[in-house]
# Entry
Amino acid sequence: MVSRGNGAGAADRPPTEKARRAEEARAARKAENARREEDARRAKRAKKAAKARKKVRTLSRQNLSLAWSTIRGRKGGFAAVLIAVAVGSAVITACGVLLETGISSGAPAERYHGAAVVVGGHQAMSVEGDTDPRLSERVRLPADTVAKVAAVKGVESAVGDVSVRTTVLGKGSVLDGPPVYGHGWSAAVLTPFALRSGTPPRAADDVVLDGDLARRAGLAPGDAVTLVTGSAPGSYRVSGVAEPAAPFARQSAVFFTDDRAARLHGPPGTVDAVGVLAAKGTDAGELADRIEKAVPGAVTYTGDDRSDVETLDVGRMRAFVIEVASAFGATMILLVVIVVAGTLALSVQQRRRELALLRAVGATPRQVLRMIGGEAVLVGGIGAVLGAVPGVLLAMLLHTVFTGAGALPPGFSLVITPLPLLFSLLICVLAARIGGRLAARRAAKVSAVEALGDVAVEPKKLGWFRLSLGVLLVPAGLAVAVVLPIVLPGEAAIEGAASSALVLVIAVGLLGPKLFGGVAKLLGRRPAEVTRFLALANSRARARRVSAATTPLIMGVTMASAQLFSGTTLAATAHDQAVDGVIADRVVTSVGAGISPDLAEELRRVPGVRTVGRVARTSTILTWPDGDGIQYRVSAAQGVDPAAVPDTLDLGVLRGDLHGLTGSTVALSRLVAGTVGADVGDRVEVHLGDGTVEKAEVVAVYENGLGFGDVTLPHDVVVAHTTDRLDQWLMVNTDREAELTEALKAYPTLRVGDAGAVTAAPTDGAGDGGISLVLNAVLLGYLAIAVVNTLVMATISRRREFALLRLVGTRTGQVRAMMRQEAGIIVLSAVVVGTIAALPSLIGMSYAIRHSVFPSIPPLLYLGIVAAAAAIAWPAVMLPARLALRPPAVEAIAQPE
Amino acid sequence: MAGRYALLLESVTKTYGSGRNAVTALDNVTMGVPRGTFLAVMGPSGSGKSTFLHCSAGLDRPTNGGVTLGDTRLTGLDEEQLTEIRRERVGFVFQAYNLLDSLTVADNVGLPFRLAGAPVPTDRVRVELANVGLADMGDRYPGQLSGGQRQRVAVARALITGPDVIFADEPTGALDTRTGKQVLELLRGVVDRTGQTVVMVTHDPVAASHADSVTFLADGRLAGELAAPTPEKVAERMTRLGEW
# Structure
């Protein structure tokens, strides 16, 4: 009929026109053919899906190929998921690389470079079924270890080594640079050092300097030099300058005579380590085994591990990197799962029509489920692989930043193996699998009828499971945040409060649409202004989609608030406690290693001085029985003179009396007392800095643990078990300050200040604060990418809606105004909901640490979070909106969704 | 002139592209649609039906010639002015996707007033909804309506501003025969009862038979007219025009 009609119509037309008409007819036929082909393809897809159903296990090849062709056909929708996975994979990879670096890397040995094996004490506390916490102070070896080691077969010689923290005074002021350690000249062979000029130290006041140090101080053999060990300056003569076999990066060395070194070292009859020079042809590993067997209590170090015993900070930093990388990595994994699941859900939601069509042509819900699962796994895998290289680059960047901030020792090299990459691949595929499953569960419920319908309405009600889980998580999160600090003593409360933010964020994700609708309702139901009216209607009706797009922003606001303000609250509390707690007139501090304990006695004789209270700092490990096992906690500790405390320090004693702090006694902060479950009169097991165990009786419980450390011990107990045996501060009450200053003139490394000096003195690893800031920035950066991702995806898919609006007479300016309103609603609700989700944890934490329900929230910092949320979300909505408004409305409306 | 025609096209030509690739979609079309009439525009694929509709309704600008809608000449108006014309003087009924999913039926109908910044005359919204047989449906959302009901909401929205012309682009294309017929009878009734002007583009002879007259397009040119159309006559004319 068609062809006849064509001929009849064409008969009375000019031939050129006839040709044109014929061509048109061909085009129409072509279109028809294309349609048929498309139908056939769809049928084929459905058939493939039907085949796939027969395969019971999750991922058949057909399923994957079906998924693959869908992915290829819908690049846009998958790009967002891909980005979420790839960036997440990069961050997880980076964490993995850092973790592996912390575990298996080391800095090359410097001073023990020439020693095949180094023997040291057991620098950790043994804990069954847990990682052994490191001891903060040097665990020394008895001096007779040297002879015992020397007797082992394969040992050519064994040299006992001591390290004495030394400060070099160059031209009257303290010389900057890496820490300087003093040793006996006989230990120079462990590097080995070669004398470049001069002679070895022979007289008691002779020293040999390492070449770099001599250059920086401008010293040559024959020059006089002042070295401060402890806080007492000593006059020495440079007898020689020696060069190490390989240049040092982490330390400088000075060499005394062996006698002088032993005398400066303090504890008689001990060495810090024993360096072993192996006989020719002896394997270091085997030799180490033999030494450990022959010398009980000795721990051997070979290879890069030697640097752990060389200076304690390498081991401490290594432990720190492991802890930070694993804690941060765990949080990131959780975030990646949430973000990937959310993005996948959004992308599936936007394909409802296509899925409905699949259902209409005969795909079963199971098949739809499988297909989406397959897509998710494919995208997850590809994303993870794409993120691998950036992940390694990120790890390199973090490594550089950490090293620069002093949280990693120089020379601590990055270890890159395929392991973290494989791990990240596994996690990402798993995250995509979980996310895909959640998204597919709903997608599979799409009815076939929807394919024929025009509107893709979202189901009004949330699933009962989602709703009840979300509703249950809210009181759970609140309970953890608020009830725990009231009910539980100790720090479990703080940790609980901190995790509540995460619980509430998940609840927010689940209840998002409800919350979102609620916020939109609060803003007024039917405002007169049309763009506002439309924006609110959209936010209400599309609550599900908008909330899925907003969830990452809410999470960002919550995480940022929780992390930053718990930090500010802790810092403010510590600062307040320390500032309010120091009641001494003046505080003596040291810019060198510390203050010699005997200086206090000297200062007490200075006219006008009424009290001198010594404060030494260390780190202790408390252990207490818990069920079948033993729990432990590492706490900052201080050693004080109990007699001087009432006039110099206010620890905020709650129970008991600090006067009794002599002998085997201890005072605990309220939090730690609660954690350990001990009160005045009980005995607790305190592992001192070098591992010595003290069964101490609790004589007092005090409030100001954040400012002064959670454990307070008698001064002598602390000092005797530290590496350097020095005090941190002297608290002085004096009527005649001038005389105090005069008395301290003889001590070039000491300074006199007021209470402010206490807070200024580093209490923890100096780089730690900066490191967590950097890691939080990475975390928030990931969330920012997720935010942009989902918002762009949500906005760009509204082309057709914008087109309809324009066709019925909405000016593009009005559409833009509407989107501005929506962006405003998104930012506003994210800030409101995010802040509300963060508050319980902050309030709970604040209550736990200082009995105040008001956390410290610096207004500017909070404004910064709000501004950042707006700065991220605003362009992510407005730019794609502009883009979506670009094509002519009549074309846009004809395009499929 | 202003009195007689609701829509007047004078020597309208629309060319897409330029040089050798230029395609002439409308070729020197001159025609007028008298007020209070129901005109169907038919033609094979590629005959220029859509371009005719877009140019007439101010969605697209002709390359040459002039379009007058009511007593307003569209030539020379900028996009903002055209948008305003669309909002106040033109009603649209598309094949599908006519309504904003996030607004209720009543809000969809009242939208043109809101966009103009005018108060929504709720009584009129109610009357128009009653006129299209959806008196009780004002609070529902489009997702809760059938396809035919949605098209009737679209007609109500098109009517509410009292436009010069209602343009309908395959308004029954996505509907079954029965509901399609209801929508067509609704449009017919609007013309008969209120003297509204309706221009409908369609390829369905049955749909076209509801109109007062049918104008045929082929290759961008007018290819005849048919008064008092019946489905058979229309089909016969279309068959002669070629594949459709």
Remarks:
- The two ends of chain B are 34 Å apart (CA to CA).
- Helices of chain B lie at 49-56, 79-89, 105-115, 122-131, 147-160, 177-194, 205-208, 231-241.
- Chain B has eight helices and ten strands.
- The CA atoms of residues 132 and 186 of chain B lie 7 Å apart.
